[in-house]
């Protein structure tokens, strides 16, 4: 299949992108890595009249540590996450998860900003953004605004980005040294989107008690699901097997998965309990 005809522009500055978005409104679509948009256009699930290609923009491809957080430019290719030294050393959960996003070929083109803006509820990067307690920077005609991860993912493929805004940067909070992490997903084949996945960060105090934890389930509903209430059962506790099972069960009770061609809602709920227990056990073992 070929896409419907469209007009193409390749602006070289963020200001030009915003001007084009303002001019063309809903008729325009931003093209980043094209790994989600192009198949949708080829299948005629999307038929934008105007394509604004972001690939000629300079200055949105970077991974840099700032004061207490990692800043990733929106046009950074997903593959760079696996190779970055700062990511491997200080954001190992991100490095662990990045290799599960599609295939090397899709990661070579697909961008960090594109994945987050696309907001597929079964995608890895949106879940990581929530787990790290991150945020995104959106740029529009009124300048920049920072949107916390917990306010960003609204529903299936829907975010808090306003019409006319470009996502320019993704920010991940740096957790303290000694934080344990784990990322697990169950998919039908290597490279497929997760049927269910879960990511976790856990920090233990000197007595081995959990003093901070963040867990996110994905593939279980309309948006990545922060397992906040269930995970709070761990705070102040030694993460033993019984408690981890209880947290897994509580997490599974909080999600509202749906049946689809890949799995039943009941199986997704079962996976939510099992995978949550497993990631937390491994994160606890790796902490310290
Ligand atoms: C075979 C295959 C397997 C895949 N498997 C996975 C997987 O397992 N996990 C996973 O997460 N993804 C998977 N993907 C999708 C891939 O990760 C995409 O790269 C990602 O979903 C979108 O990123 P992109 O840069 O390609 O964006 P594009 O496809 O170019 O754009 C996607 C959407 O985001 C919007 N957009 C892009 N950039 C911006 C921006 N800066 N600001 C505002 N809006 C923007 C576009 O307008 C469009 O609506 C797979 C893709 C393929 C082809």
Automatic annotation (TrEMBL):
Keywords: FAD, Flavoprotein, Oxidoreductase
Oxidoreductase in keyword set: yes
Signal peptide annotation: none
PROSITE patterns assigned: FAD_PCMH
Residue ranges annotated for the FAD-binding PCMH-type domain, each copy included: 1-177
Entry keyword annotation includes Flavoprotein: yes
InterPro entries: CO_DH_flav_C, CO_DH_flav_C_dom_sf, Diverse_Substr_Oxidored, FAD-bd_PCMH, FAD-bd_PCMH-like_sf, FAD-bd_PCMH_sub1, FAD-bd_PCMH_sub2, Mopterin_DH_FAD-bd
Single GO MF annotation: FAD binding
Pfam families: CO_deh_flav_C, FAD_binding_5
Superkingdom of source: Bacteria
Record's protein name: FAD-binding PCMH-type domain-containing protein
Provenance organism: Candidatus Entotheonella gemina
């Amino acid at each position: 299949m070929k896409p419907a005809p469209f007009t193409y522009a390749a602006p070289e500055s963020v200001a030009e992108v915003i001007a084009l978005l303002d001019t063309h409104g809903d008729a325009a679509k931003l093209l980043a890595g094209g790994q989600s948009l192009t198949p949708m256009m080829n299948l005629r699930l999307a038929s934008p009249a105007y394509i604004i290609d972001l690939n000629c923009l300079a200055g949105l491809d970077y991974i840099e540590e700032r004061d207490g957080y990692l800043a990733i430019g929106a046009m950074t290719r997903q593959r760079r996450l696996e190779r970055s030294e700062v990511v491997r050393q200080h954001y190992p959960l991100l490095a662990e998860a990045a290799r599960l996003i599609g295939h090397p070929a899709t990661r070579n083109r697909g961008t960090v900003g594109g994945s987050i803006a696309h907001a597929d509820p079964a995608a890895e990067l949106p879940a990581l953004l929530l787990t790290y307690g991150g945020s995104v920077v959106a740029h529009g005609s009124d300048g920049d605004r920072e949107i916390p991860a917990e306010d960003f993912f609204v529903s299936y493929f829907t975010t808090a980005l306003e019409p006319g805004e470009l996502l320019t940067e993704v920010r991940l909070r740096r957790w303290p040294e000694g934080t344990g992490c784990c990322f697990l997903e169950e998919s039908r084949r290597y490279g497929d989107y997760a049927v269910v996945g879960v990511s976790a960060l856990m920090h233990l105090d000197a007595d081995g008690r959990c003093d901070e934890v963040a867990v996110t389930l994905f593939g279980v509903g309309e948006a990545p699901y922060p397992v906040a209430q269930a995970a709070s059962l761990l705070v102040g506790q030694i993460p033993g097997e019984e408690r981890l099972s209880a947290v897994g069960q509580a997490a599974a009770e909080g999600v509202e998965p749906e049946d689809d061609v890949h799995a039943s809602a009941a199986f997704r709920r079962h996976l939510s309990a099992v995978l949550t227990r497993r990631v937390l056990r491994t994160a606890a073992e790796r902490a310290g």
